Amino acid sequence: MTVIGLISPGEMGASIGAAASHSATSVIWAGDGRSKASHTRASDAGLEDGRTIDTLVKDSDIILSICPPRNAEDVARQVKQRAFTGLFVDCNAIAPEKSRLIAARFGYQNFVDGGIVGGPVWESGSGTRLYLSGERSKDIASLFNNSPLETTIISGEIGAASAMKMVFAAYTKGTTALLTAILGVAEKEGVRSVLESQWGQAFTEKTHQRVVANSAKAWRFEGEMQEIAATFENARHPGGFHTAAAAVFKQLAQFKDKPAADIVELLEALNQSRN
Q: For residue 41, what is the domain's CATH number?
């Protein structure tokens, strides 16, 4: 039987941990020093508290890393320095080159590259998918049989799953940043009502809903946009658009975990940050 270590139970991580529990003996996390909200999410997902990272590494056969992109390398470093010999799965929104660098620490035979597309997955039919690449991708895909999480093995090449995540989010989240910036400029120049009249009611309402809802995740999207920019540049394509997208999301970091009340509050925060 398999013990899975989860780092860490944010909204996405908790749901992935719950999905993995369908086939694992247990799914554990390291709760020491974590917030009350993290403990609540973990408990609600049925995760067991191993308390420390040392215990998690010692007791786990497989470790799933699901954290903000800026923390991915540090998490891998902490796990590796504790002499982990199991299978490390990086499911973070990071550039393919970074995934390959992390894989080299563990050895390619002990590493699987993962990329999550979609939101937290609590029910079947959500459409959330875990893309996998690496020699042992099948071992990870089998963990989620009969769970709400769908899996797709892309290839045996480390970096392929991360690349898929990067190019997908380059459009979905990149265009959210673009629409946010467009609205900010239109508001600043006094032409937002004219622009929205040209857009039409349906598109305007959908855009407002999209940018307001995503404001709660802007603090995390900033790092993801930086990873996408690096992905484009490593492929010898301009990364400037997504560097700018990171700057847009940085301006909305104040809404961490609690979205703006409405488009007015969001645009006020966006334009005040530019003064």
A: 3.40.50.720
